[in-house]
Specification:
Rossmann fold; N-(1-d-carboxylethyl)-l-norvaline Dehydrogenase, domain 2; 3 domains; six-stranded parallel β-sheet; 20 helices
Length: 446
């Protein structure tokens, strides 16, 4: 018999994880305190996030009777083999992770336990959270039979379903053999296909998540700083990235230059890891410098738009293409747009923006920003086009037509989507990251 699962939280991690467990044939109930969100999921199949393929999978598993949604923990926790906590752990003012939602979920679960149950921290949490959750459950329900496991998620927004169903690795921190056996049963559909399940202690599991994200954030920041040097010495950052990425010890992933990292994970997790380093007297100086450098990178990129317009954006219309922190998501948490665009506004630019999915997020995050429904509408009457997100729609656009809609025939591309030499041949003033501009190339040819 397959394990019965309760998932606390229907945000990004909870909804994707719960739906994927159901897709693997398990009986899953997702719980959330937001009654309207649950009503929309049950009655209208309206999901609260944009993630390719998720809406169809939710509908399919609801219809199959494997995926359920409720606001009432008492209807599902007592009958569950495993209860996953997948609630938010937002960054607190001091950089640490805010644990109030995790600990509240632990209390609510404790009140409804019936027989031995594995409680699983799926949320991204600092080292020691397993002990804190265990203590909270014991305080509320001293007679409860349970174990606390750690099972961090490694889901990339825009590719989350594939990441869950075909993972690089599954990490589980277990305090007992009994809890490990249940976790093995939950992930049996994947281990039977050859995917790696790493079972370790809770502290190692908790730290693996933070360490992985901090390392990837460092790679991104490293290549962005190299890009700045490339611009000074005449090197091409794409060639440098390829050259170092061919070294199997380094690898090519996360070596693409851009406007800095953002999203729901990297900024929050690097800050949390840095905080824990200070808390335990083991400063994570590389991570601390990564955080500082990433912010500096985002701030200085506004200057590229000024450069494209002769040194000033005052009174100029900038057509912004993309607002989400990356393609295939509507997430704007810590997106580069939230740093770069206010700086352009401060310098006097008029901004008109288009993103295929992030308008709802932008409306409350940047209420002063003018949003339009197509890239053509944003570009018409503009002085320059600014590419901030690598959406497929922008990668395949007619660059000559796009540049032609601007008064300066200029594209500032902070995702390096196009070849500067080809742009020069098309007569487009093209500025990207870590490469010579088309204007500079033209002067060399002349």
């Amino acid at each position: 018999m397959k394990p019965r699962i309760t998932m606390i939280g229907t945000g990004y991690v909870g909804l994707v994880s719960g739906t994927c467990f159901a897709e693997m044939g398990m009986d899953v109930t997702c719980v959330d305190i937001d009654a309207e969100k649950i009503r929309k999921l049950v009655e209208e199949n309206i999901i609260p996030i944009y993630e390719p393929g998720l809406e169809e999978m939710v509908k399919r598993n609801q219809e199959a009777g494997r995926l359920h949604f409720t606001t009432d923990l008492s209807t599902c926790v007592p009958n569950s083999d495993a209860v996953f906590i997948a609630v938010g752990t937002p960054q607190d003012e001091d950089g640490s992770a805010d644990m109030q939602y995790v600990l509240q979920a632990a209390e609510d679960i404790a009140k409804n336990l019936n027989g031995y149950t594995v409680i699983v921290n799926k949320s991204t949490v600092p080292v020691g959270t397993g002990v804190r959750v265990e203590n909270r459950v014991k305080e509320v329900n001293p007679s409860a039979e349970f174990d606390i496991c750690s099972n961090p998620e490694f889901l990339r927004e825009g590719a989350a379903i594939g990441d869950f169903m075909k993972p690089d690795r599954i990490v589980v921190g277990c305090p007992s053999e009994k809890s490990a056996e249940i976790m093995k049963a939950i992930y049996k559909p994947q281990t039977e296909q050859g995917y790696t399940l790493l079972i370790t202690n809770r502290e190692s599991s908790e730290l693996i998540k933070y360490a992985a994200n901090a390392f990837l954030a460092t790679k991104i920041t490293f290549i962005n700083e190299i890009a700045a040097l490339c611009e000074k010495v005449g090197a091409n950052v794409m060639s440098v990235s390829e050259g170092i990425g061919l070294d199997t010890r380094i690898g090519s992933k996360f070596l693409q230059p851009g406007p800095g990292y953002g999203g729901s994970c990297f900024p929050k997790d690097t800050n949390a890891l840095a905080f824990q380093g200070q808390e335990f007297g083991a400063p994570q100086t590389i991570v601390e410098q990564t955080i500082t450098a990433n912010e500096d990178i985002k701030k200085r990129l506004a200057a590229k738009v000024e450069e494209a317009l002769g040194g000033s954006v005052k009174g100029k219309k900038v057509a912004v293409l993309g607002l989400a922190f990356k393609a295939d998501t509507d997430d704007m948490r810590d997106a580069p747009a939230l740093t770069i665009l206010p700086e352009l506004e401060r310098l006097g630019a008029e901004l008109v923006a288009y993103d295929p999915e992030a308008h709802e997020q932008a409306e409350w995050r940047m209420p002063s920003l003018k949003l339009v429904n197509s890239k053509e509408e944003a570009l018409t009457g503009s002085d320059v086009a600014l590419v901030l997100t690598e959406w497929a729609e922008f990668k395949t656009m007619d660059v000559q037509a796009v540049a032609g809609l601007t008064s300066s025939n200029t594209i500032v591309d902070l995702r390096n989507l196009f070849n500067p030499a080809l742009m020069m041949e098309k007569g487009i003033n093209y500025i990207s990251i870590g490469r010579e501009s088309s204007e500079s190339l033209k002067q060399k040819v002349a």
